[in-house]
Design a protein that fits this description.
By secondary structure, the chain is of the alpha+beta class. The chain has six helices and 30 strands. Helix content is about 25%, strand content about 30%.
Length: about 550
């Protein structure tokens, strides 16, 4: 009797149900009578090991069937993923289900367990240990960066204090100099006036004597001097210093002083083949250069240049004021020129994930794809005119369109040529974008936000992937007297937004929450329009009047 069974259960042959079988197959974990053992060994497709029953090795504990209490579950239903007995097999529930031997399932699960155990021990666990070991280093780096930040902050404060002290000393010196000049002037005037006072007092005494005199000759010889003495005394106007100052604007002062940018601290995670194919790891944090650096300029030879988009880190597509689209490399060589199919001027360019060129033709209301120099219409609009566009990380296409009457503007998302989303109003039903057909460059941020540079609206409008309004950036508050006129727009690996402020000849760098970070205004930019950023975070700027694309480095 099998020691794993209760006293009421009698071990029987697995094949013929004969009680108290003499043999046991250690391969299949089955009890066999002598007749069935010979038949069992005749199976040439499996290496069976039949031994006397008492010499059998330890076998799995077959679970009792919950529905048929006197039966053991010797089978497994793959669809239901539960053990079943032979009586369960005949029920309707498991009809047409795939049934396997429970021992086979047991052995398969054992293999899976061994495989996963090996993977955990040899791969996953060491990777987690390695990552855990980097945490003390990260903590030390964090402490060092915080100390450096504090030092820089104190240094910045001391620099500003020195500047303020210098201004105070300059104004104080000017005040002291003015006081000395005015005092010398008053001293001179005091002497002059005192001489006049003495002269007038002497004349008064003389006239008093004459008025009492009876000397006819003396009185007759008097000549009037009143005209000379009645002239007004000298003007004593002096410049008294008066201190006037503007009210301190905390926001402007904070902006002048500097701001704290919280850069993500990332851990280099090991490759994981089971990770989602679409997931992107966080990029390593990058620090700004103290001053952006001009690298080179590419002359496109357009009379007016409007757009630039990256095909790769060393190739760019551009469009200007004619019907030609040009491909240049960073060696300033012209690689390709393509004329639009309609011979109309293209309004904007974009490059797909597969490297195809897209352009909008508002004059025939189309978006077109260029593949191997062949041009095919991708989308045609009715009642709407396509303007600016961008290709997203998911392969979708975002197109800014305005109505035929120029009264409405919206962003439309396409998957291929199928429209899947309209973005036009905020939660209050108000229009997100200014109407009319002026330029509204568009791009997708790394966090899937949609960013639109609204030229007429004088703002950068940002919505999330679902089209809900996140924020509107209307320019830096410092200096506040300048009007923000955004045209080109791009984003970088840090999810920061770069907007071309064309008439102020600079680029605004904005955090993905709408905070102003800095200007790029030291590279002799003049009327910057189109922007794009390559995978190395180099900024490419299309200057309208020069026809040049300037490449600028702004990260360390």
């Amino acid at each position: 009797m099998d020691q794993n069974y209760s006293a009421q259960d009698i071990v029987r042959c697995y094949l013929c149900d004969t009680p108290v079988p003499e043999h046991y197959c250690d391969t299949c974990y089955t009890s066999l009578c002598t007749v069935c053992a010979e038949e069992h060994l005749s199976d040439k497709f499996k290496d069976h090991k039949v031994v006397p029953f008492r010499q059998r090795r330890s076998s799995p504990n077959y679970p009792k069937c919950p529905k048929h209490t006197k039966k053991r579950c010797e089978l497994h239903c793959e669809q239901c993923d539960v053990p079943i007995c032979t009586r369960c097999l005949s029920t309707r529930k498991h009809k047409e289900h795939k049934i396997i031997d429970i021992v086979a399932n047991f052995q398969r699960k054992k293999e899976i367990i061994q495989t996963e155990l090996l993977e955990l021990e040899k791969s996953i666990y060491p990777k987690y240990q390695e990552t855990a070991s980097t945490i003390p280093v990260r903590k030390a780096d964090l402490h060092e960066h915080s100390k450096k930040f504090t030092t820089d902050l104190i240094q910045r404060g001391e620099d500003l204090h020195r500047e303020v002290d210098a201004i105070i000393e300059k104004l104080k010196s000017e005040s002291d100099e003015n006081e000395a000049n005015c005092l010398a002037f008053l001293n001179d005037q005091e002497k002059e006036i005192n001489r006049g006072v003495s002269e007038i007092a002497r004349r008064i005494l003389d006239l008093k004597k004459l008025s009492k005199s009876n000397d006819v000759c003396l009185v007759a010889g008097y000549t009037s001097q009143i005209a000379e003495l009645s002239r007004p005394p000298p003007n004593l106007n002096v410049s008294i210093p008066h201190f006037s100052c503007q009210e301190i604007n905390t926001a402007q002062l904070s902006e002048l002083f500097g701001s704290l940018s919280l850069l993500p601290m990332t851990v280099d995670e090991p490759d994981n083949n089971t990770a989602s194919q679409g997931a992107e790891s966080s990029p390593p944090s990058r620090l700004f250069l103290d001053q952006p650096e001009f690298i080179r300029a590419i002359n496109t030879r357009f009379e007016l240049l409007y757009s630039v988009t990256c095909l790769s880190d060393d190739k760019i597509w551009t469009r200007g004021n004619n019907n030609i689209m040009k491909l240049h490399n960073h060696k300033k060589e012209l690689l390709e020129s393509i004329k639009t199919k309609s011979e109309n001027k293209p309004w904007d360019l974009a490059v797909t994930k597969t490297g195809d060129l897209l352009y909008t033709d508002p004059w025939d209301s189309s978006v077109n794809r260029v593949t191997n120099k062949e041009i095919q219409p991708l989308i045609r609009f009715r009642g709407w005119i396509p303007r600016n566009l961008c290709s997203t990380s998911s392969g979708d296409l975002l197109v800014v369109v305005n109505s035929d009457d120029n009264e409405e503007t919206k962003v439309v998302r396409f998957s291929g040529s199928t429209k899947i989303q309209n973005i036009q109003f905020n939660d209050k039903g108000q229009a997100l974008f200014a109407p009319q057909s002026y330029t509204k460059y568009i791009c997708e941020n790394r966090n899937m936000d949609i960013c639109v540079a609204d030229y007429l609206g004088r703002a950068v409008v940002v919505v999330n992937q679902a089209g809900r309004h996140r924020f509107t950036y209307t320019g830096s508050s410092f200096p506040s007297t300048e009007s923000f006129i955004p045209v080109g727009i791009a984003t970088d690996s840090q999810s920061r937004i770069l907007a071309a402020d064309c008439m102020n000849h600079r680029i605004h760098v904005i955090e993905n929450d709408g905070r102003f970070l800095r200007y790029i205004d030291n590279c002799d930019l003049f009327i910057p329009l189109g922007l794009c950023v390559d995978t190395k975070d180099n900024l490419l700027v299309a200057e309208r009047d020069s026809g040049k694309v300037k490449i600028i480095q702004y990260y360390i």
